[in-house]
Amino acid sequence: MSAMKPIAVSMGDPAGVGLEIAARAFAERDEETPRFFLIGDPFEATVAASRAGLVVRAKAISKPADALETPPDQLPVLPKPLTVPAKPGEPDPRHAPQITAAIADGVDACLKGEAAALVTLPIAKATLLKAGFEHPGHTEYLAALTASAPYAGARGPVMMLTVEGLRVALVTIHTPLAEVPAAVTQERIMEVARVVADALRRDFGVERPRLALAGLNPHAGESGEIGREEIEIINPAAAALRAQGLDASDAMPADSMFHEAARATYDAAICMYHDQALIPIKTLDFWRGVNVTLGLPIVRTSPDHGAAFDIAGRGLARADSFVAALKLAQRMAETRAGPR
């Protein structure tokens, strides 16, 4: 790990739990925790740590490489000062410029080879939208920031969630359930599957990825008796993927594809809608889920939870998911870089 660059961590919404969990991960780190630097407000990071009862002092750095030289008791922070102080639990649209700039700076550090990967702390989309933010969320913003950067792989973005023993990728993300059937197309399924297969090889070291396609309807449509999307859309997509050399299943009943024996038969599940993917992830390991954006020229992960304004500043936030995101980002970066 020592040969790797540090991981960039964008601060997320400073009124949420992001700064607190970054400080907690730093304070409670062990030898397996990757080196990282925060992009945000050093003062706010120190205050967030203090509120959580943590003895962590932020140290302003001038460039990512300085993170490797920072004293072990000081959290390295690439400054992105707020113009308005943060109040725990009270998101403020006036923080939006610094929140989005921290993400952009993290992307820039990765593209320049100054950071091994980017881990993004939680944002609140509603707060950013009030300030004129033009993207639905992190995933789309990252795609825009990296659109002109060269990338030899299958380009996304595609959202994947992971826990130990399960990876799920989404055909639709934050789509209202009533609109999901129209959004599930053969072209979209194939696009997601190709990105997932490429990323499994490139970033996870899976030589021949096995993809399991979830059905949209109960019992995967039961031969068309309770829905025809499997027959008319999902299975033709699977057949076309197999014709292209990918190992992709026909539509599987979603209620029976996430038990232990079933999970052993595939490397990633392609799910048709949000809750179909996230319920098994959060049931298997609620605290250590990781969100991964596939198909980018950089490695990006994030904790699988939101800004949690309701507990911000109270010292209650757990850092498990953030630490898991750091460790997965490190492994992905090492796999993508190849043998040294």
Keywords:
Isopropylmalate Dehydrogenase, 2 domains, twelve-stranded mixed β-sheet, 11 helices, 12 strands, globular
Beta content comes to 15-25%
Write the CATH fold name of the largest domain.
Answer: Isopropylmalate Dehydrogenase
Residue share in helix: 25-40%
Total helical elements: 11
Structural class: alpha/beta
Report the biggest beta sheet as strand number plus sense, adding barrel if it closes: 12 strands, mixed
Order of helices and strands: EHEHEEHEHHEEHHEHEHEHEEH
Tell me the number of strands: 12
The CATH class name of the largest domain reads Alpha Beta
N-to-C CA distance: 12 Å
Q: How many structural units, i.e. domains?
A: 2
**What is the CATH homology-level superfamily of the largest domain?**
Isopropylmalate Dehydrogenase
User: Average pLDDT across residues?
Assistant: 96
- Major beta sheet, strand line-up: 3-4-2-1-5-12-11-6-7-10-8-9
Radius of gyration: 20 Å
Chain-wise SSE layout:
Blueprint: E1 7-10, H1 18-27, E2 36-40, H2 42-51, E3 57-60, E4 74-79, H3 96-111, E5 118-120, H4 125-130, H5 138-145, E6 158-163, E7 166-170, H6 180-183, H7 186-204, E8 210-213, H8 229-243, E9 247-248, H9 260-263, E10 268-271, H10 274-284, E11 290-294, E12 300-303, H11 320-337
Parallel strand pairs: 1-2, 1-5, 2-4, 3-4, 5-12, 7-10, 8-9, 8-10
Antiparallel strand pairs: 6-7, 6-11, 11-12
Helix pairs in contact: 1-2, 7-8
Structure characterization notes:
With 340 residues, the protein is an alpha/beta fold. The chain folds into 2 domains: 192 residues, Isopropylmalate Dehydrogenase; 142 residues, Isopropylmalate Dehydrogenase. It is built from 11 helices and 12 strands. A 12-stranded mixed β-sheet has the order 3-4-2-1-5-12-11-6-7-10-8-9, with helices on both faces. Helix 1 crosses helix 2 and helix 7 crosses helix 8. The protein is globular, with a radius of gyration of 20 Å. The mean pLDDT is 96.
